[in-house]
Amino acid sequence: DAKTTQPNSMESNEEEPVHLPCNHSTISGTDYIHWYRQLPSQGPEYVIHGLTSNVNNRMASLAIAEDRKSSTLILHRATLRDAAVYYCILSGFGNEKLTFGTGTRLTIIP
Amino acid sequence: SQTIHQWPATLVQPVGSPLSLECTVEGTSNPNLYWYRQAAGRGLQLLFYSVGIGQISSEVPQNLSASRPQDRQFILSSKKLLLSDSGFYLCAWTVPGQGIGYTFGSGTRLTVV
User: Fold this and answer.
1) What string of DSSP letters covers chain A?
2) By a Cβ cutoff of 8 Å, what residues of chain B touch chain A?
3) Which residues of chain B fall below pLDDT 50?
4) Among residues A34, A33, A17, which one has the least CA distance to residue A82?
5) How many CB atoms lie within 10 A of CB B51?
6) Can you give the pLDDT at residue A95?
7) For residue range A12-65, what is the model confidence (pLDDT) as tens digits?
8) ∠B3-B9-B13 over CA atoms, to 5°?
9) Does the beta-carbon distance from B105 to A49 stay under 8 Å?
10) Beta-carbon neighbour count of residue B87 at 10 Å?
11) Is the pLDDT of residue A94 over 80?
């Protein structure tokens, strides 16, 4: 599976936008980019996924670079409940096996 | 709507005792099912996954086994627990080919003493 690289930790102020980066320089043409987050003592929660185009949903936006070698998860207005570990994962189409890395621990400052 | 049930929430077991964790999914058919483990302060490790009844793939050699006796039931077992089996066990499901993402259960926190 192609690997992703994320910063170990980030901090953001409450009510401000958060941009979480992910590098995936070895991504293949059929790899989807998935984002999950894990709150303390809970299972991971699906956030968003995309292939080539930018994606928006009620939780976040996913901006994918034109060469697909990087992506950014955007939380438009961070709340304290967004404090979690955020995982960026690649998975090939039809290969529904997700391999989690260490993710980015996001801290929200009140 | 689809739901996933996982139990128990917490479990304390002595070394050498057996283990059985159960996971069931409702509201979907033919899901892919997964068992993950998260050791304290570590990332999630995929242990087993299943694409159908009786079909189990093991990702890492270990003291555990998995079974899928019914379409929406996934069981994680051990005959004799080790201290290193302690961790947070998570079951997850997805429907293959639809890109809908994984849905995880609430997890079982296992402490082997």
Assistant:
1) ----B--SEEEEETTS-EEEEEE-TT--TTEEEEEEEE-TTS--EEEEEESSS-EE-SS-EEEE-TTSSEEEEEESS--GGG-EEEEEEEEETT---------EEEEEE-
2) 32, 34, 36, 43-46, 49, 88, 90, 92, 94, 96-97, 99, 101-107, 109
3) none
4) A17
5) 15
6) 62
7) 999 999 999 999 999 988 888 999 999 988 999 999 999 999 999 999 999 999
8) 140
9) no
10) 21
11) no
A78 touches A103 (CB < 8 A): no
- Give the Cα separation of A20 and A49 in Å (integer): 14
Type of residue found at A32: Y
User: What was the pLDDT predicted at A46?
Assistant: 92
Rounded CA separation B35/B21 (Å): 10
Question: What is d(CA A52, CA B55) in angstroms, rounded to the nearest whole number?
Answer: 33
Structure tokens given for B39 = 């050791």
Q: What one-letter code names the amino acid at B2?
A: Q
- Alpha-carbon distance B31 to B50, whole Å? 9
Distance CA B30, CA A74 (A): 33
Taking only the tens place, the pLDDT of each residue in A62-86 is 999 999 999 999 999 999 999 999 9
CB contact under 8 Å between A102 and B43, yes or no, is yes
Q: How many residues does chain A have?
A: 110
CB-CB under 8 Å, A96 with B107: no
